[in-house]
Amino acid sequence: MGGLQEAVDRIMNHFQKHYHLMLLPGIIFLIVFHLVPLFGVVIAFQDFNIGLGVKKSPWIGLENFKYLFQIRDSKVIFYNTVFISSGKIIAGIIVPVTFAVLLNELRIAAFKRWVQTIVYLPHFLSWVILAGVIIDMLSMDGIVNRLIASFGGEKIMFLASNDWFPWLIIGSDTWKDFGFAAIVYLAALAGIDPTLYEAAEIDGATRFQKIRYITLPGLVPTIILLATLSIGNILNAGFDQIFNLYNPLVYPSGDIIDTYVYRVGLVQAQYGFATAVGLLKSVIGFILIIVSYRLAYQFANYRIF
Amino acid sequence: MRNAKIRAIGSVLLALALVLAACSGGGSGSKDSGSAGPSKAAAESNGDNSGNGAKEIDPYWLDEPITFTTFKHVGANAKLPEGDTVENNQYTRYLKEKSNISVKILWYASGSDFDQKSQLAIGSGDIPDVFVVDEKTFRTLAKAGQLEDLTDIYEKYASPLTKEIHASTNGRALESATIQGRLMAIPNISVQADAASMLFVRQDWLDQLNLDGPKTVADIERIAKAFVDNKLGGDNTIGLTADKLDVPMKSARHDLKGFFAAYNAYPGNWVKAGDGNVTYGSILPETKEALGKLREMYLAGLIDKEFAIRKDKDQVVISGQAGMFFGPWWSGGVLRDTYGNFPNALFKPYMIEDDSGSINNLQMPVSQRFVVVKKGFKHPEAAMVYLNNFIRAERKAEPDAAKLDTSVSTEFWPIGNPTFDYADAVERKSVILADALAGNIKPEDLIPEMKVLYDFAKADEAAPKKDLAGWARFYGYTEPAELLKLPMKSVYNEFTITTPTMDRKWANLKKLEDETFFAIVMGNKPLDEFDTFVADWKAQGGDEITSEIRKELSER
Amino acid sequence: MVQDRTLSARLWNLFLISLMALIGFSSLAPILHTAAVSLSNTAAAAGGFVTFWPRGFNIESYRKIIDDPHFFNAFWVSTKRVFVGGAINFILTVMMAYPLSRSHREFKSRHYYMWFVLFTMLFSGGMIPLYLVVKYLNMFNTLWALVLPGAVPVFNVILLMNFFRNLPKELSEAGLIDGAGPWFMLARIFVPLSLPALATVTLFSIVGHWNAFFDGLIFMRSVENYPLQTYIQQLVVQLPPEYMDSTNMDLLDKMSDKTLNAAKIMVSMIPILLIYPFLQRYFIHGIMLGSVKE
To answer: How much is the ipTM here?
Structure first.
């Protein structure tokens, strides 16, 4: 059917122009406000003095990067960052997906709407406030410890313990933001063809089978997408949160790249260093995204983007 | 997503830096014709423009009207009367009238917003002609060669009053603004009252137990134990609150500055050690002693068990749980809120002495704010003249200045209000207040600022603690101010900026210090860990830094 | 809808409802606490005595925020920003997501665009260069500075693109057979069928604009032009250590004024609480029903 194929190809070629056109305005904005300012990354390679500006600050090549790795605790800091981040990514998939799927099972529309709105709210609270609440709850006289004591256990100073601290960070962050990811999953769930469910119903599928064979597969593309984007952020373990919750006792498990960089900045404006760290984070994140993309393509013939 | 990244970078930029990019300099010589010169106070001859030799310079008036640009810090809630704006208010009008200077304000912001914004502005070349900066920024700018040399300007244009005020610091103020022999900024004078760390104690608890107020650390320990044993604050009574384990120059609530000072220990500061050399306070034996005592007290349950974790330390005081806390003279706010919850509570402040009976006080840097002029600005003398007028008006040394309404914050002076007060301003005001209350000064003769305090004090006399907010306003000038007048041994932090090695290694050294000190006090590590810390500290860069600093100080 | 009435189904439902209620409560708890604090007396709040119910009820903090002459002005600026910015976001998100969602066969250059977009999401030059760009374009103190730099919400674009991709191929094929061009396909077929995803990205965009405060601070010269969050932020300012001394006692009091801080949060949240339920109606099931015949 050569003729038809040619016709289709011709139409497709015609469409290209329109696709480009659709993208044009957005691309222009991206170029102006994202690409152009990228010249600022040269600061990462300078001993930047704001007094001298970008043009005149001395060039020091990779010194800033080297410094990051020369820090005495750099291994610990990197480890903490990756550990906490990974924990957040994993929990940040499991919890919202589970929640979205379960909420989806409910049939009372009004209740669903309310719950959906409410769980999104903690996202709006700043960590300054939440840290205060968490510290109160976990204090020696707080709810948690009192419960433990009533069961005859020994009270724990959670926020001073290197064993507990990373998990607290992961847990509280997941609690705060699962509502946000859940929205995306709920939207995706709303887009699943209901006839699939009806067909399964007719075939006598149980609730769980429906979830397993229809709902979850329907969510997989979205899950993979969000997971991949999160991986791009892996070296951002949550400065605001940790800054408001940590203390010198939990540096060994809780000090991350950003908190360290912050303390360096207190000594002297280390603009070059901060930019270098930011650049490193972006590069590593980008590489990881590319790797994920390739893996998905190789093994599942699936293009994430 | 982007916001998080921006904020991360933004918060690192907290330490300021200024940029002088190739932005065209501020407009000099504005076009408006000079307005009629007002009467000139202070003795000076009428500046005659015809160049007959040795023309006398009027430190308060510029013959040609000058406009310079600036940006500044304005508190979020600073109020202005109807019709006035940041650009046009009583202070700007006063300035124009008295000095022929107008100021164009590019923008203004408050608190850390101001820091971030100014950094960006400068980094992009938006440097104004004249503005106020902190020490770090000042030195960065100076190092980058972006500031105008003001040595001669000061010589020629500083008014007698200005010179007097600077001189009251024994030259330390000007010294701090001098780089390699040249004066690169006009420094302000810090209010030293903020340095002292007083111990606020629940007097009602002391009375209940029939105890005397504390004078020494041993007293503190004893009292804390009594409070805790008797559960005066409930089951979880806290004897003494705590926060960080180093000593800030500016006293902050819940720090242990007064405690450490009683051991003559100043961790976190570069002080003259016994041998006369400048050494880092945290590695000196006095610090070890102090930490040892803190450790004992902590393990005995006398210090807030969760001091390392808690972010809101005021809460334990305001909730009636804690019996003592260290704080600056202006801690009235916390007292006010405690009284709000417990009308029968009563606090009294005390200064703690060391073994030899002396009260030690680590002073603040003499100057914390510097007025700088952008290099190349055509009329740097305008900055000096402006300041002369500002200082004179603030001192009420000029009749029209007395008519200024002091309920309008002095931040509205065009470039802001770096303090140029006598270092003992607080003590002086407390004397005035006491005199007024005793009837020695007539209320009508008080300057508006003092009158406000006087009114609150009088109201409180009539109905004690009825208006708690008002009470908190003047309280600092009573009991706490009295303590400020006690003789104290002044100790100085000899080096408040950074060296190149510090830039690289300090964060790490500080981390080591914090981790060790907290572990020691909370009992996780034995006291002798301190010695290991000292050795590590020296090996990991401490010695290097110490010699760098000593070298730099000897070259000043 | 056929309701399953067996005992196990009912138990399951009951379990779910209780679970959701519990989760909902845990999410709501800090909000209730904040609301209670915002309506309490300062001393009680500072002493930590407020849990879920106000102590010493008063609306002082709200009055402080609202009485401020700039408050309504800032509110208006934020509203304008949400509308203009939101509209721009919406249009650009939709227009970009569609071509990107086409397969390589249909749109040859899509990979280049896709990776470019991804790149911009990850890499940033920092604040100073952006500041310079905005300055160079003379956008300081204008609404454009708030609306244009973030004109393309890349994350939303990727989300919507993903959603478009997962719509059945039959849709575009049917459209093609009917002679529809890309614009028509987008506007008449894809958009109407993507309401849940559109509602999502719209929500994110609105929330983003409403909550943004940093750009308002940096790009606006005077308080009159501050959007609401920037304005409130500096009302309840965080003082860095250098400013913490007796010359700033007023500010310091404000900083530790818990009720004021709490009121600020509530004020920022309320508009979102109003918008969200409105958008929720678009999270409809079965939007695809009947659109594709097997």
So the answer is: 0.84
